Amino acid sequence: GPEDVGRSCILVSIGGKNIMLDCGMHMGFNDDRRFPDFTYITQSGRLTDLLDCVIISHFHLDHCGALPYMSEMVGYDGPIYMTHPTKAICPILLEDYRKITVDKKGETNFFTSQMIKDCMKKVVAVNLHQTVQVDDDLEIKAYYAGHVLGAAMFQIKVGSESVVYTVSLNLNFAFLLRAAWIDRCRPDLLITESTYATTIRDSKRCRERDFLKKVHDAVEKGGKVLIPVFALGRAQELCILLETFWERMNLKAPIYFSTGLTEKANHYYKLFITWTNQKIRKTFVQRNMFEFKHIKAFDRTFADNPGPMVVFATPGMLHAGQSLQIFRKWAGNEKNMVIMPGYCVQGTVGHKILNGQRKLEMEGRQTLEVKMQVEYMSFSAHADAKGIMQLIRQAEPANVLLVHGEAKKMEFLNHKIEQEFKISCYMPCNGETVSIPTNPNIPVDISLSLLKKESAQSVGPDCKKPKLLHGTLIMKDNNMRLVSPEQALKEIGLCEHQLRFTCRLHIQDPHKEQETVSRLYNHLKSILKDRTVQHLPDGSIMVESILLQVSSHSDDPAAKVLLISWTYQVSIETFWLSHLITMAVSTIVYTFQFHILIANAEHYSPFIWGEFISGDCQKTFRRACVY
Amino acid sequence: VKESVYKELHDFELQDATRVLEWTGDKRVCVAGFEPTKTNEILQLLLPAKLHTRENQCLERDLKVEHGGFSEHPVYSLKHVPHSSLLVTSGPAASPVQVWEIGNDEKDVIKPLRAIPSRTGKETYTKIATTSMPSPRVAHGSKADSVNITEIESDKVLYSLDVTRSDPVGNLYFVDCNTFFVCCTSGLLYVADVRQPHPALEGKKDATPAIASLSSEGHIVITDTRKLGSPLKSARSRASTPASSELFMCVSWAPVLDDTIAISGLDSTVQIYNTSSWDATMRERDPLFTHKGHSVVADGEDESVPMVTVHSWHPWNERTLLSAATDGSLHAWDWSDKLIERDS
C-alpha cells in the first residue's frame, strides 16, 4: 500500500548460522541510503562467506528491492529463498523500478537489467510447507501468509532453536487468498512488524462496499471508471465482486478487461492455483476465470465510446501499456474515476496521483492535468493487532521481536504482549542488535554398556523420573558422547591420576621404627576386630584400604612421623574407619604421653575434616594432598 | 422496498468490547474494556483520515492505536478533560474514580495519575463528568446526595450537591463550566449552579439547552431546563422491548443537526430521531434512521445478537456517529435520511 516506506533487512544469527531476512529498498531516498547498509556485515569483500542464506518474504520492493544490489554489486553468491509466485513477480517489479530510476530519471550507480537476471539465477524457489535443508544444520520452511500472492512466513531452524519471520499476514478469510495458518511450532523468537500490532483494520465487507459504491456512483453520473490491475493481483477478485453487484443492481454499463490480462492471469493462476482458496479453485476448475456474464473483452477503440463503462487494464501502477493509454484519454474529465487497487512503486504515475499530484509530466514534455477522481482501494489484507495476537497465540513463541520504523517508544505495546503471553518482547531500533537467550537441547550419545551399568544402579519405583548418570563427556568433531571414565582415558590416551588424602602425626617414641609399627599393628588389630588389618612386608599397615606408614627423623630417632592416607573414593564407611584409626592412634599417642588433639568426628567430608584438623593442631596435620 | 443508505460505513473489531467512546479532540477517541475478570485496556485510537478530514481524497480506512494503558478495574465511564491530556474513569461499585494522563507523542502510554476520593455506591457505579474551566475538575457521584465536584490538581472538593434524596445517579453532565445537571435513574432531574449553594429543582432562569432522557422502557423525554417539572416533548421509540439492564442506555443530542437525538442501549440498534415535530403526548415515533449493523453477525458464528453499548456523535461531521457493541464491534457510519428505492 502507500504506507510502505521502509527498507526491511534483518540479520539473524542462530546456532552459528547467519541469515538475512528480506533485502528491501527505501523508496524515499535517491542516494546510497535507499539500500541497506551492508558495511554493517562486512567493510570489504563479499557477503557470501558471512551469510548462509537470504530469505525474501514477499515481492514488495521495500522487502526485495535491494536484492540485485546486494548480490551483484556488493557480492553474494549464496542461496536466496522465496516462493514461486514471489520469484515470478519480483524480477518484473525490479525491472520496472530500474527503468523508472535509470532510464527516466537518469540516475547512475544502480543495478542493471543483467544484474537482475544474474541475481534471479541465485534464487531458489520453495513450496509451502516444504522443509528446505540449506545445509546440514540449517533448515527453513515456508508457511502461507496471505496479504499478497506469494507472501510467506518463514520458519528458520538450527537444531532445537528456531525463529519465525513474518511481516504481513492475513488471518481472516480473504476472498481469493486463503487465511494464514502456522503450526504450534513454539519458536524461540517470532519476528514481525509493530505497524500491524497498532492497527485496527476496517472490515473487508466495508472495503468492498466502498469500492462498489464508488464504481456505482461514477457510472450513475455517466463517468468512465479505470481500474489498473496487476495481472496477478486482485483483478479476478474485483471482477467477481463487480459481476455480482451488476447482477444484483441490474446495471447496464459495460465492464471490460484487457485481453492480455486474461491470458496472463489465467496462465499465472494455473501456475499458482494452490495459493488461492478452495472456492476459487472450484470455480476455476468449472469454468475459465474470465467467463463472466457482464464482463467482456476490451478493444482499444472502446475507450473512445460514449457513455459510462468500467475497464480493468494492466499494468497496475499506471507506468506503461494499456492502463496508461486509457488513463491519458480519461484523465481530463472530472466525471471519470481511476481506482488504484494495489501497490504502487515510487516514481510511477500511480504513485504520483495517489499522493495527490494533479499535474503530470508525460513523455515529450507534455503535461497531463488530472481532473478525474482518484481513489485508492486498500484490499491488501495486512494483519492487524488482533491478527498479531492470534499469531502469537498460535505459534507460542518464547520471545517476540517487533521491527518498527517509529521514533515513538512502544511501551504499551511491549507491556501488552508481555502481560498477555508472559513472554519477552523486544523492539530494536534500526542498527541495534538484540540477543535472545535460548535453551537449546544438546543431544549426547551414551555407550550402551555405560547406560546399562548406570541404570542398573538406580532401579527403583520412580524409574520414570530423571536420573543422575556418572560418566565422562567427550566433545569431539562437533558431537558429544558420554562414556565410562576408563574408556575416556583410553580414547584420549591419558593415564589415571589418583587423589589421596593424607594425615601426618608427629609422635615421640623412643622405640625403633619397626617396633613402633608392630605396636601400632597390634593395637589396631585389638580394637578393630571385625576389620582386615594387615602388616605388609614393606613395613606399612593396611586397614581395609587405608594405609599407615611410620618413618623417623634422621636427626632425632625418637621423633616419628605417622602417615595415614586414603583415596578420595572412600565410602562413608571407610571414611569413618579412617577416623577410627586416628582415634586409635591417638590412644597410643596418649599412652605414650604425647598429646595430640583429634578432630571432632561429626564431619563427613574428608576435606572439611582435614582442614579442621590442620587448624586445630597447629599444622601438625597437613591437608589432603595429591600423591 | 425503501431502504436508508449509508454514505460511509466502517466496521472495526476491537479486541475487547467497550462501553465508552470518548472523543479526545476531533481526530481521536478513547475506548476501554469493562470485563470484570481481567486487566482492561484503555486505548486512544486515531481515526482514519476519512473520518476526520473534510477532504474527499483519503486513502486510509484503518484505526491506529496511539496510546494505551492498563486498568485494574473495569471501565464503566471515561471522560476526557477538555484541552488537556487528562482522562477520568470510574468503574463498578467500590472501584475508585481514577485520573489518567495520556503520554506525549514520544510515548504510547496512558498512565494512572491518582485516584479521586469519592463515596462509592453499592448498587450503582460512580458517574462522572469533566470540565476544564476554570481548572480541570470532575463531578462524580453514585447517589444524588453524594455528588461532588473535585478539582483534579488539588483534590479539593469545590462543591457538594446539597440535596436530601439519595436516588441513584443515572448521568452527570456539565452544561457549561458552572452549570451541571444530574439525571437520576428514578427520573428525577437536578440542575445545579456551582456558584449557588442550592440546586434548583425548578430549573434555571436563563436559556440553556433542553435535556433528553431515555427510560429503560424506551420512552424518550425532552425537558426544558427552565421547567424541569413537566416534560416538553415525549415519545416512545419504535418496537423496543424494555432494556434488560440500564447499563448501556445512552441518549445524545446531535452536535450539529438541530433537534436530533440518537438513542441506544435498548437492543442491537442505534436509532436517530428528529424531535422537532414531537409534543408532550407519549406517542410512538418513527426514527429517521436505524443503524442495525451490530446485529449482522459474521457467518458461522452462532452467537446471541450483541447489544449496543454506547454511541457518540462526530463533533462536526453532522451525520457521522460511532457506535460499539458487546461483541467488540466498533462502527463508524455516516447516515443519510435519503431513501432509495430498491427491488425486493
UniProtKB/TrEMBL annotation, chain A:
InterPro entries in UniProt: Beta_Casp (IPR022712), INTS11-like_MBL-fold (IPR041897), IntS11_C (IPR048662), MBL (IPR050698), Metallo-B-lactamas (IPR001279), RibonucZ/Hydroxyglut_hydro (IPR036866), RMMBL (IPR011108)
Domain Beta-Casp span(s) in chain numbering: 235-353
Keywords: Cytoplasm, Hydrolase, Metal-binding, Nucleus, Zinc
Location of the Metallo-beta-lactamase domain: 6-200
One GO CC term, this protein: cytoplasm
Family according to the record: Belongs to the metallo-beta-lactamase superfamily. RNA-metabolizing metallo-beta-lactamase-like family. INTS11 subfamily.
Molecular functions per Gene Ontology: hydrolase activity; metal ion binding; RNA endonuclease activity
Name used for this protein in its record: Integrator complex subunit 11
Signal peptide segment: none
Requisite cofactors: Zn(2+)
Origin species: Leptobrachium leishanense (Leishan spiny toad)
Name of a matching Pfam family: RMMBL
Coiled-coil ranges (or none): none
GO biological process: regulation of RNA splicing; snRNA processing
Localization in the cell: Cytoplasm; Nucleus
From TrEMBL, chain B:
Source superkingdom: Eukaryota
GO biological process: cytoplasmic microtubule organization
A GO CC annotation given for this chain: cytosol
Statement: the UniProt record of this protein carries the keyword Repeat: yes
Keywords (A to Z) from UniProt: Repeat
Coiled coil: none
PANTHER family linked to this entry: WD REPEAT-CONTAINING PROTEIN 73 (PTHR46947:SF1)
Name this polypeptide is given: WD repeat domain 73
Organism in which the protein naturally occurs: Leptobrachium leishanense
